[in-house]
Design a protein that fits this description.
Layout (H helix, E strand, L loop, with lengths): L1 E6 L4 H10 L1 H5 L2 E4 L1 H9 L5 E2 L7 H10 L5 E5 L9 H13 L4 E2 L2 H16 L1
Parallel strand pairs: 1-2, 1-4, 2-3, 4-5
Length: 124
């Protein structure tokens, strides 16, 4: 199973904490991430396939992987209180996840429920 993880700058620490709290799960899946988010998670000790940073096309790369059927779920910690110069790419990624019916969590609470569901599905 391949999971994409992305976090806006103001949410990167939250993403690392989220992943570390669920280390057993994330050790069992392939993680793909936008560049800076991936580097933060790599420093936490996990293997991550890092793409370009979001503003440099990383969001679009993940959207392409979603449309190609490579991604099982996306965890994207969005910072709703900041302006993002690549908002068009962010919106496109969210739309592509909805078009292809890919689980998408944009905050910590929803991501927790999604990962619990994926763990349960994996046991069946």
């Amino acid at each position: 199973m391949k999971i994409a993880v992305i976090a806006h700058d103001g949410k990167k620490a939250d993403m690392v904490a989220f992943v570390m709290k669920r280390l057993d799960f994330f050790k069992k899946v392939d993680i793909v991430a936008t560049g800076t988010t991936g580097k933060h998670i790599t420093h936490a000790g996990l293997e991550v396939s890092c793409l370009k940073s979001g503003p440099m096309g990383g969001d679009a790369q993940i959207a392409s992987m979603v449309s190609d059927g490579e991604i099982a779920a996306v965890v994207f910690f969005v910072d709703p209180l900041d302006v993002h110069p690549h908002q068009v790419d962010v919106s496109m990624l969210l739309r592509i996840c909805n078009v292809y019916n890919i689980p998408l969590a944009t905050n910590y609470s929803t991501a927790s429920l999604m990962i619990d569901g994926l763990k349960y599905r994996d046991k069946e």
